[in-house]
Amino acid sequence: MSMNVLFAQTPVSVNGALSVKDGQVVNQYGAPPQLQGLSFSWSIWQGRKYYNTDVVDWIVKDFKVSIIRFSMAVQPAHGYLEQPDSQKTLVTNVIDRAIKDGVYVLIDWHDHNGYLHIPQSKQFFAQMAQKYVGVPNVIYEIWNEPERVSWDTVKNYATQIIAEIRKYDPDNLIVVGSPHWDQDVDIAAASPITGFKNIAYSFHFYASDVNHQDGLRAKGDKAIALGLPIMVTEWGVGEASGNGAFDLQKNELWQKWIKAHKLSAVNWNITDKDETTALLKPGAPVNGGWTEDQLTPDGVYVRELLGKLNKKYH
Q1: DSSP class of residue 44?
Q2: Percent of residues, the chain, with pLDDT higher than 70
Q3: Count of domains in the chain?
Q4: How far apart are CA 168 and CA 160, in angstroms?
Q5: Could you write out the three-class secondary structure of 96-161?
Q6: pLDDT band of 311, cuts 50, 70, 90
Q7: Catalytic pick among 141, 164, 234, 239
Q8: Do the beta carbons of residue 283 and residue 273 sit within 8 Å?
Q9: Cα–Cα distance measured from residue 25 to residue 20, given in angstroms and rounded to the nearest whole number
Q10: Which domain holds residue 93?
Q11: Chain-centroid distance, C-alpha 98
């Protein structure tokens, strides 16, 4: 084994524990880590089969991810509400592998109606916080995408879940959603959560969507100007439906925006569903090892993008 391999730097060994300082998510040196990675799909349906340690190893090695998001389904059939033990086992298995591989992990409560599931969310995150306290890789994403609810509703939910996590884990980064599928960050910025440290806010976009252009970037700009720490925990190359156009020019515009604000960002999603924002063509192997022929245009684009953005780790 060469010395280079033996002492390879991982994203976590380079950046250490993440925190929030002066309106930004920063690493152990007070600089934005600018992590870039991939989101697994809902932990049910078609994407579930990719929730295995081989896929985690593959995307670390081949896609050069520095962060992975595990999207634990909550409300649909076979999700956490119905099958808490099997869902918890499924996600902790891959979380543990990602930690071993030295990358950051978003533990995503993949729910649109978090405010209806407060007791279940509290129980889940209390268990996660006890298991992962002090592990610098771990980030808690406590409500994937609130839909058409008020910021007060989101804030009330978030405050309760944050308090539960902080009973056991005083420091690790927690990411809060905002109304309208994580787009109304400007509204959150006008009345942010107080009384807790290391709280960031998720911001989602679909690069080719007609409704996710200058107006949405302006919302992000406003929130950032007001000092709201933001992490792009989900973005797609297509439209919000998961399908639609893959407009390269619009994608490049969003990538410039991410870079200008030194944000971390996670691409949606690892599945072989026949749609624009799926990374894999139907039938791609369940254990990774994907050839370029098995990647969709999205997969080819994102693999190249991550390889460039994360080159400092390889």
Answers
A1: S
A2: 97
A3: 1
A4: 14
A5: HHHHHCCCEEEEEEECCCHHHCHHHHHHHHHHHHHHHCCCCCEEEECCCCCCCCCHHHHHHHHHHH
A6: confident
A7: 234
A8: no
A9: 5
A10: 3-313
A11: 13
What string of DSSP letters covers 220-274? Answer: HHHHHHTT--EEEEEEESS-TTS-S---HHHHHHHHHHHHHTT--EEEEEE---S
Q: How far is CA 276 from CA 78, 170, 207, in A?
A: 25, 40, 12
pTM of the model: 0.96
234 belongs to the catalytic site: yes
Q: Which of 141, 145, 164, 239 is catalytic?
A: 145
CATH number at residue 65: 3.20.20.80
Residue type, 196: F
Q: If you average pLDDT over residues 71-84, what whole number do you get?
A: 98
CA distance 244 to 3: 46
201-237 pLDDT, tens digit each: 999 999 999 999 999 999 999 999 999 999 999 999 9
